[in-house]
Design a protein that fits this description.
InterPro entries: F-box-like_dom_sf, F-box_dom, Kelch-typ_b-propeller, SCF_F-box_component. This protein has 369 residues and is mainly beta. It has a single domain, classed as Neuraminidase (6 Propeller). It contains 6 helices and 28 strands. The chain has a 4-stranded antiparallel sheet with strand order 3-2-1-28, with no helix packed on it. A 4-stranded antiparallel sheet has the order 4-5-6-7, with no helix packed on it. β20 and β21 form a beta hairpin.
Length: 369
């Protein structure tokens, strides 16, 4: 019966499979493999992103071999992926659908690249017009097409150090933007000197895009936020709750709005939403028992955070476990969960490495970027 089903019907069934299950299905027979190849958009791009949660991908923060670890939230399982196809060790900047924007760690001058760790594809972006070190990077994606074969996105680069006209170095005030539509960098504006300094010295080079504004969190205590309104070309800065008490702080996008996650020296971690203007509203607190389990006697300064539209993860090392605030499948609300860390894969013990995590929707279809 299964071999006689029309391709469009079989593709609809395949669209409900997770990427690992889809990979096994396409290896079953030539008919099923041909179906996946014939209807890649139905089975890979849009429907899979709607039916399944994003996966958590963890890259070791130190050069411990070219590999990464991914957590499948559907079956609560860890996988090891080799990154030996990458020409250089990299660290993640942001996820774009099934792709990861990365930058090599062995070069001081900014160089960006795209990769798909599941299809082992890799491609450098063109070099920016201005050679600069340690700039802040921001990513804006088109939600409607970011899961397609040619995801539309823009990369903004602000601040950093560039060569001065008479030698030496200076803070770079030009704002550059890479557009994937024409595969070209453009100078689109300027950064006030104060913001250029803060973007260069005090940001971890990560951004959040929400309602037409790119936001960066400063890493210096007391914490603060910088925002760039893209259409109006305006910069502004504002504070965060408990700014002088937070030991770590991270910006995320939740329910389409700007969200702040931070842990205070008093021992609790909270989640706030930007309600309007510069006003923050408390929406959640990390359960004390889970927080203590995650910290393991250390301070909140050792914690990192990653988020998607359907989950927020607090984590430390690969094997330390993660505290997760996640949307329930029935969409009746959000709840707190504990996810065990990765200790072994396929019976082989995994070292407890410091990691950097991002979310992505795994896709097995080759992208044409």
């Amino acid at each position: 019966m299964w071999s006689n089903l029309p391709f469009d019907v079989l593709a609809k069934i395949f669209s409900f499979l997770s990427p690992d299950s889809l990979a096994r299905a396409r290896s079953t027979c030539r008919h099923w493999n041909a179906c996946v190849d014939t209807y890649p958009i139905a089975t890979s791009f849009i429907l899979l992103s709607l039916h399944h949660r994003a996966w958590f991908l963890a890259l070791p923060t130190r050069n411990r071999g070219q590999h990464c670890y991914v957590h499948n939230p559907v079956i609560d399982n860890w996988h090891l992926l080799s990154l030996d196809f990458l020409p250089d060790p990299v660290r993640p900047v942001a996820s774009i659908g099934a792709l990861i924007l990365v930058r090599p760690t062995n070069c001081t001058v900014l160089q960006l690249a795209l990769c798909n760790p599941f299809t082992r594809q890799f491609r450098y972006l063109p070099m920016s017009n201005i050679s600069r070190t340690n700039p802040a990077v921001g990513v804006v994606t088109s939600d409607l097409v970011q899961h397609g074969p040619n995801p539309n996105f823009r990369v903004y680069v602000a601040g950093g150090m560039s060569e001065a006209p008479r030698g030496g170095a200076m803070y770079e005030l030009k704002l550059e933007m890479y557009d994937s539509m024409d595969d070209t960098w453009h100078v689109v504006g300027f950064v006030p000197t104060e913001f250029a300094v803060r973007l260069t010295v005090w940001t971890p080079n990560e951004s959040v895009y929400s309602n037409g504004v790119l936001y960066w969190m400063t890493s210096a205590r007391a914490y603060s936020v910088m925002g760039y309104e893209i259409d109006g070309h305006r910069w502004r800065g504002f504070g965060v709750p408990m700014a002088d008490k937070l030991e770590f702080a991270a910006l995320l996008c939740h329910n389409g709005g700007l969200t702040l996650v931070g842990g205070a020296s008093e021992g609790e971690a909270c989640i706030w939403e930007l309600k309007g203007g510069d006003r923050w509203g408390l929406i959640q607190k990390v359960p004390m028992e889970m927080g203590r389990k995650l910290l393991g006697g250390k301070s909140w300064g050792s914690i990192k955070c990653a988020g998607s539209e359907e989950a927020i993860y607090l984590y430390k090392e690969l094997g330390s476990g993660m505290v997760v605030w996640r949307e329930m499948e029935e969409k009746a609300g959000w709840a707190w969960f504990w996810i065990e860390g990765c200790h072994s894969i396929g019976g082989n013990q995994v070292p407890n490495l410091p990691i950097k995590g991002v979310f992505l929707h795994p896709n097995l279809f080759p992208f044409t970027f």
